[in-house]
Design goal:
homodimer, alpha/beta, Alkaline Phosphatase, subunit A, Alpha-Beta Plaits, eight-stranded mixed β-sheet, 14 helices, Pglycerate_mutase_ApgM_sf (chains A, B)
Chain lengths: 401, 401
């Protein structure tokens, strides 16, 4: 069911829903006893939820596809990530919590190194330090253009955010990053007539930036890619009739939540404190998206034991969540991050759904292989989780007479 | 696979197929031993079919979607219910077995109450009795329009069917029901130029009806909604090459079957008698849709034990069905109606398929949780049942060389 269809069926109810995302939850059986991280973790509280609820594994994007954090979360939120795509420039803005306005054009920039002939010798400027990046960004912030305002923000190491604000801007501009060494940066090219003005402004900016950076090898030039504008998507309120909030500490996840119209609360670090914040705001919202990052981080570190510990840490906070007496709870991840791979992966992600209208299945522990036998099946499309949550919250009307 | 694709693959064979629909079959584990209605029921004959056949659970419309009876059955018949939608006016006509002709415009009407200022005070006219409705409909039947014939039929309580028959009619007309109190009924508005003539006729009818109903408070006015024309869909014969009949007692299900070109036989009440009728007509048809209503009715009553009894009653009739030696049998529901909810629900529906070409699975009893492990999986799209039945009846040609 696509979002337009669900939108027509949404109805209101006095029910509360919590989506707890343990980032990168899914793993691979590379542990001591041939177990995955989740299987190895001692999770009595999550297991109790599974016994009362239903379980399965969801596919965030599709078979074999490894999701980035943006698509992973958009799928959980019911927005088909292959249709609702965010440009890299917008993601960069979300990542530093830059308050992108409708009409702004954002791009992801890299400091890079040019040789005397103007050929790219390092697309990442020797990965300069973030401090050095900040100094160089100060140099660039003074650049003035005729007809648009420029914003520059340090992201990390060689990475920066470039934003143009003004009338009639358009993001249909090709990347200037040649994605190769020994060639010149690409010219700024408008892909459509409507983007020509913007392309001229970007070209003017890059020219001036090149002058200012001239003496600063290895960071003596800029490459840009992923020109994009903030998308105009339905909000959670428009799509589902839900007052929704995000309780997430990392800018990226707060940003994705903002794109779908969630309020972003200033989130504390621990899961207990996040649940306490949810308790405080319980009457103000119908839907709580609560995010825990370190499960993914430890997976990316390739540290099996540390990922197990992060999962066990989440499990210990579950009683605080259930004390809120939510009508519907989903616990899952936005993708898998097996310690074995030390990066995001394509593997389906364990998911449990708990409500009083569950047709409980035989799954008794929350783990990848146990979930295969669950009522949600081993390959549930991730975008079906929101309709299922809404149904269990009695927030979807009957279709047809 | 959509219907167009299946249609191209359909081929003839000398095989007989039976689809037995136990309306509202799926339930929730609210019974004495934590069982669902179907799990609690003693169903030795259905269990025997499951042991020889394959099982699973199907999703009539999609994840989280609660189907009405129309969409639920259309899905079983292989017609994607999100694509093949029936207007409320047509459903009202089906419900009273009005013989809607191509070109007729039908609407669902409500008697309602207006105060002295012409404002709606009760959209259902105090739910007048069906007898009173019949008297009032007689008043309205005499209304004559210039250029179209009018048909009025009592549905139940405050509900009636309005049908306009004539040349060049069009159903693109907005509802006159304001869906609110304290406001006037909405004017009759044509949504397209092609519907203007029809809108004038409807407005003229409503004006005359208002005059005739003037002294009959609380039913002193009419509201109309769901203007619609009979759809022109492929028939079972066109889509599948099947001579199909419906053996169903309730007008609604007979009506939906008619929409897809089935003959509707005058059906007896008990399942044994329905199977006897099928036996009588065995040579005349290839496909028998046989419908049992009370499983749903008892679920809607919220009566767990009575729903169990209705399922057991169906089970007892199964030997009579199998004596006919059908090549393919499917037993399922059009949606779930858990006694716990006392209404239709979004939960997947147990299904079994029996033929001599089944790759039997490990499921040994017909129940929601047992079916999760079946060969059809826990979330089979409902529209895939018809292609599976056709295949098992050796009625689908090889695709490609």
């Amino acid at each position: 069911m696509n979002l337009d269809f669900i939108q027509k069926q949404a109805k209101s109810a006095n029910t509360k829903m919590v989506m707890l995302v343990l980032d990168g939850l899914g793993g691979l059986p590379s542990g001591p006893n041939g177990q995955t991280e989740l299987e190895a973790a001692h999770t009595p509280n999550l297991d109790a939820l599974v016994r009362d609820g239903i379980a399965g594994l969801h596919l965030p994007v599709g078979a074999g596809i490894t999701p980035g954090s943006g698509p992973g979360h958009l799928g959980l939120f019911g927005f088909d990530p292959t249709r609702y795509q965010v440009g890299r420039g917008v993601l960069a803005a979300l990542g530093v919590e830059f308050d992108l306005q409708p009409g702004d054009v954002a791009a992801r920039g890299n400091f890079c190194s040019l040789d005397e002939d103007g050929l790219v010798t390092d697309r990442r400027a020797g990965r300069i330090s973030t401090e050095r990046n900040e100094e160089l960004c100060k140099l660039l912030e003074g650049i003035e253009l005729d007809g648009a305002e420029v914003f520059i923000r340090t992201v990390k190491e060689h990475r920066l955010l470039f934003v143009l604000r003004g009338e009639g801007l358009n993001a249909e501009i090709a990347d200037t990053d040649p994605q190769a060494l020994g060639v010149k940066p690409l010219d700024v090219v408008a892909k459509t007539k409507a983007a020509e003005k913007t392309a001229r402004l970007v070209a003017e900016f890059i020219e001036k930036a090149k002058e200012r950076l001239a003496g600063h090898h290895p960071a003596n030039m800029l490459l840009m890619r992923g020109f994009a504008q903030k998308p105009t998507w339905p909000t959670f309120r428009e799509a589902y009739g839900l007052r929704a909030c995000a309780i997430a500490s990392y800018p990226m996840y707060r940003g994705v939540a903002k794109l779908v119209g969630m309020d972003t609360l200033h989130a504390p670090t621990t899961l207990e404190d996040k649940f306490a914040l949810a308790a405080e705001k319980w009457d103000d919202y119908d839907f709580f998206f609560i995010h825990k990052k370190d499960v993914d981080s430890r997976g990316e570190d390739g540290d099996f034991a540390a990922k197990v510990a992060a999962i066990e840490n989440a499990d210990q906070a579950i009683p605080a969540l259930m004390k809120l007496n939510p009508d519907v709870v989903v616990v899952t991840g936005d993708h898998s991050t097996p310690a074995q791979l030390a990066e995001h992966s394509w593997h389906p992600v364990p998911v449990l759904l708990h409500s009083k209208y569950c047709r409980t299945d035989e799954v008794e522990t929350f783990g990848e292989r146990a979930c295969i036998r669950g009522a949600l099946g081993p390959r549930l499309p991730g975008i079906e989780l929101m309709p299922l949550m809404l149904a269990n919250a009695l927030r979807l009307a009957k279709f047809g007479a």
